[in-house]
Amino acid sequence: MDNIKQIAQQLKISDKQVKSVLDLTAEGNTVPFIARYRKEVTGSLDEVQIKAIIDENESMTKLADRKTAVLTKIEEQGKLTDSLKASIEAADKLSEVEDLYLPYKEKRRTKATIARENGLFDLSQMMVKNPPKNINELAEKFLCEAFPTVEKVLQGAVDILSEMISEASPMRNWVLSEIKRNSSVTSKLKDPAKDDKQVFQIYYDFSEKLSGLPNHRVLALNRGEKMGVLNVKIENDDDKIMRFFESRFSAHDNPYMKAAIKDAVKKKIIPAMERMIHAELDEKAENSAIEVFGQNLKNLLMVAPLKGYTVLGFDPGFRNGCKLAVVDATGKFLDATVIYPTKPASASKIAAAKKELAALIRKYHVDMIAIGNGTASRESEAFVAEVLKENKFDKTFYVIVSEAGASVYSAGEVAREEFPDLSIEKRSAVSIARRLQDPLAELVKIEPQAIGVGQYQHDVPEKKLSENLDFVVETVVNQVGVNVNTASPSLLSHVAGLNAGLAKNIVSYREENGALTARAQLKKVPRLGAKAFEQAAGFLRIPEAKNFLDNTGVHPESYPVVKKLFQLLKISPDSSLEILRTVDIPDLAAQLGVGQETLTDIIADLLKPGRDLRDSFDAPMLRQDVLSIKDLSIGEKLEGAVRNVVDFGAFVDIGLHDDGLVHISDLSKHFVKNPQEVVAVGQIVTVWVKSLDAQRGKINLTMVEPK
Asked: Which residues of the chain, if any, have pLDDT below 70?
């Protein structure tokens, strides 16, 4: 119950909503199913809120388990006081619990423990306040094999004091707070040879207060340090910290306490607090990067599909040529070849490449050419634009498509199963073509990390990133819905309630028995039980179904509700359903014995059966001619597609070799805290050229119209 109240307060929702989600999860329900079909129970929480509840509950459970273990261990030592117990129980972070446990934790043998074992604790206590003038004589009484001289005895006593000071939780907390508020992170150039492109140039002589350090700089500094380019450290006001400790322990005229404080502060406390702060900054920055990647991935998967077009996939390259693959309007593979359209190919090979591309366009009536954005992309774009112009292919357009992850897919098991007779390079061209037709269906075949729409994704914990991106893919797949008769096993495996095994079983079933004509047939799929059917059915579509509800988001459990609804309104699936727009939802929901949220969703699905949520998003930009940086002028107005969104702005494809950057300060006339609030991957935006650097191929753009 404590977890429920804490989560509710933290997420600003009711206790009832939290309890409902945890109960539904315990019953084996998936996040997409709960979000879509249990809105009355959860109060219409979305997938992100539901996952946050589940994650927070797991985190709090781990914290509670650790507190119990720590309390038990301290109690076994007979050292658990009421105040210590209260402090541990009140801690809301694992790091706080570990800090309170530190003095009682079983340690490796230190100088202080050896001094204690040899009876020097009493001497150390004599040093705390006004040590006696005859302390040297007193120290002689503690001489032993481990401490054979007075100097070593006195140092042993100081070591005990140093360890006690370093483990004092209130003092550690003060230092932690002081560093967070007032310290700065600095970086200096360490090895220029390791940064030949000067990627880290702004960090060669850099300083910024920790309290204002943005997430992307944390990750940039980490990467620069890891690569050996930068020396990074935290600059503290050591004198201020020392004065605080000396004042607290009245050590101004006490050389032994001064020595103990210096050792504790500089060798133990400050390094420990810096490590803690570093971990906190890293975690915050990593979570932000993962969130950015997740949002970008979601927007990329939501890019509107180009349905009904024959597409030629164009995988660019120099020495090894460009791989071409043609797929029909359904994504079926038709043909593939390799051409050599760019230097170092000879003039005769380039001429032959023009003829081959034109022949493919004519033979298959190619509508769209999808050009991968990798090596030789812009050279290939110029070649394609020239072929379209020379042959007057006025109805054929090209699009630059992100090929991130295409090589991962083409060399993987999924591609080998789909195209066992094609080379890896030609499989890649097929993937590029299909990405244009249906980004979601194609991209789910690739590990999300390989898609590359984020910042510093290689610098964050792989497991955490993978879990978050898998959740994003699952959310989008289920929001969009899946055609059960055409979906690949990769796509089906992301449907709520299904896994890779069940997805393959569905494909095998339809191959053996023909296309499914009703959702109920899913129950005949081997190993697809009642729970899996309940979770998955509403997200699976059957366009050719006898019952039109099987091609909507209406769950089979609500089919009787729809039947009763039609009877009440005296309408049928074949008649106009426009009357549904005018009904009184609360009154009708009461008559049908169903929740208002469920009825609202049912009506939305009935009014647009088979709708694709992605159709409301921007489609890719179609081009027929190429643009050069030399063609541009400051202040020129352009249209572009957002390729990537990061903490400091957005990269926009305007048809140049490299994407232009719209800095966060140029996204809007108003202050922008988070670029995701203004732009999204795949969005078509209007930009103006702000500055050009032709030599470095860099262009800065603005979305604020110049005056």
From this structure: 1, 454-455, 626-627, 696-697
Of 419, 437, 455, the domain-final residue: 437
Q: Is the previous residue joined to 344 through a cis bond, with omega within 30 degrees of 0?
A: yes
Number of Cβ within 10 Å of residue 435's Cβ equals 31
Distance CA 678, CA 666 (A): 11
Is 220 contained in some domain? no
> Which pLDDT score is estimated for 284?
93
- Residues 410 and 514 grouped into a single domain: no
Tokens of 449: 């990390």
Neighbours of 426 (CB within 10 A): 23
State how far the Cα of 120 lies from the Cα of 147, in Å rounded to an integer: 10
Q: What is the CATH number of the domain that holds 368?
A: 3.30.420.140
Bridge partners (DSSP) of residue 401 are 372
Q: Which neighbouring-strand residues pair with 337?
A: 324
Tell me, yes or no, whether 426 and 315 share the same domain: yes
pLDDT given for residue 627 in this prediction = 65
CB-based contact 632:689 (threshold 8 Å): yes
pLDDT of amino acid 671: 92
Closest CA to 226 of 191, 201, 198: 191
Stated pTM of the model: 0.82
Residues 626/377, Cβ–Cβ less than 8 Å: no
Cβ atoms 666, 649 nearer than 8 A:
yes
- Alpha-carbon gap, residue 507 to 509, rounded angstroms: 5
Question: Do 328 and 425 belong together in one domain?
Answer: yes
Report yes or no: 243 and 233 within 8 Å, Cβ to Cβ: no
**CATH number of the domain to which 595 belongs:** 1.10.150.310
